[in-house]
């Protein structure tokens, strides 16, 4: 079972000559199996130790037990960086500046416990071999948090599975929406004649005369992303008149205006705006009970009439989609 461990960076009573070597460990704490990397860095500045006139190599090693050392990586002036452990390492020897060796363990575990050592090998002022070293002690916390680590790992696995499922579902939804859009567009082309754009809107005229009421017509318009048309001015009226005449022989075309909730107050339900523009046919509007819905009448000359919303008429309806 994985165990919660902590990297405690402790400079272990180094003698004076080791102070020229800087050894750092990051992060200062890690969770076994959860921390992404453990980074150990060793540096030596030329001239910081007058006894060591020429540096030949830097090595990072760790004690696997009280008597055995395992080398992780070495950088030398002859061979560059060489690896002896499953690590990533970079480094260089520079006798006129800063020499360094950087070693990284990915997802460190219990084997990373122990004492770490940075060893600097070189020559003294008389060209005799000379070594300097610096050590850090890596210790672990007590294992009372084993269950916590286990639960965190389980949560990570669950999150990974959820992310995978989400991406799969997202792809399925994307395919479904693409297919649905294609089918809706194909259905729309079959059922409607569509106009060119006019003042930021596009109009769709139902292609055949049918018995329809305002609720059915509005619901169908909404399926295709629009609403029963709102005629707001003379220019729009003439555009609709020309469009209807060009694509059909319609005589009655239902539009969105009505006075269902307040007789005498004609409104467009979608925008809830009072109708300002009317082009009433002769003898209209009617003031009979229930004549609450508004249509365009083209039998003689295109104008507006009001009809009983509950009566059945063979007519068409026209939707408006804001672009």
UniProtKB/TrEMBL annotation:
<dbReference type="InterPro" id="IPR016186">
    <property type="entry name" value="C-type_lectin-like/link_sf"/>
</dbReference>
<keyword id="KW-0732">Signal</keyword>
<feature type="signal peptide">
    <location>
        <begin position="1"/>
        <end position="20"/>
    </location>
</feature>
<feature type="domain" description="C-type lectin">
    <location>
        <begin position="198"/>
        <end position="316"/>
    </location>
</feature>
<dbReference type="Pfam" id="PF00059">
    <property type="entry name" value="Lectin_C"/>
</dbReference>
<dbReference type="InterPro" id="IPR001304">
    <property type="entry name" value="C-type_lectin-like"/>
</dbReference>
<keyword id="KW-0430">Lectin</keyword>
<dbReference type="InterPro" id="IPR016187">
    <property type="entry name" value="CTDL_fold"/>
</dbReference>
<protein>
    <submittedName>
        <fullName>Bg selectin 1</fullName>
    </submittedName>
</protein>
<dbReference type="GO" id="GO:0030246">
    <property type="term" value="F:carbohydrate binding"/>
</dbReference>
């Amino acid at each position: 079972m994985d165990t919660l461990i902590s990297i405690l960076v402790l400079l272990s009573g180094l003698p004076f000559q080791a102070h020229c070597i800087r050894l750092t460990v990051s992060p200062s704490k890690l969770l076994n199996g959860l921390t992404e990397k453990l980074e150990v860095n060793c540096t030596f500045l030329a001239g910081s130790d007058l006894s060591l006139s020429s540096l030949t190599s830097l090595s990072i090693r760790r004690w696997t037990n009280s008597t055995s050392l395992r080398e992780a990586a070495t950088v030398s002036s002859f061979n560059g960086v060489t690896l002896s452990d499953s690590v990533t390492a970079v480094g260089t020897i520079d006798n006129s500046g800063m020499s360094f060796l950087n070693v990284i363990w990915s997802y460190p575990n219990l084997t990373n416990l122990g004492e770490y050592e940075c060893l600097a090998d070189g020559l003294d002022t008389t060209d005799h071999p000379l070594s300097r070293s610096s050590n850090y002690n890596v210790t672990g916390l007590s294992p009372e948090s084993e269950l916590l680590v286990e639960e965190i790992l389980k949560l990570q696995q669950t999150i990974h599975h959820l992310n995978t499922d989400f991406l799969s579902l997202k792809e399925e939804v994307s395919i479904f929406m693409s297919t649905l859009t294609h089918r809706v567009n194909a259905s729309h082309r079959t059922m409607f004649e569509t106009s060119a754009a006019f003042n930021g809107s596009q109009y769709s005229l139902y292609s055949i005369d049918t018995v329809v009421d305002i609720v059915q017509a509005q619901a169908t318009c909404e399926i295709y992303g629009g609403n029963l048309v709102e005629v707001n001015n003379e220019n729009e009226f003439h555009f609709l008149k020309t469009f209807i005449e060009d694509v059909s022989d319609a005589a009655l075309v239902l539009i969105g205006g009505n006075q269902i909730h307040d007789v005498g107050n004609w409104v467009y339900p979608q925008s809830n705006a009072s109708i300002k523009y009317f082009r009433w046919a002769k003898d209209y509007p009617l003031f009979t009970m229930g004549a609450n819905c508004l249509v365009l009448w083209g039998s003689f000359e295109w104008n507006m009439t009001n009809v009983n919303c509950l009566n059945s008429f063979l007519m068409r309806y026209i939707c408006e989609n804001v672009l």
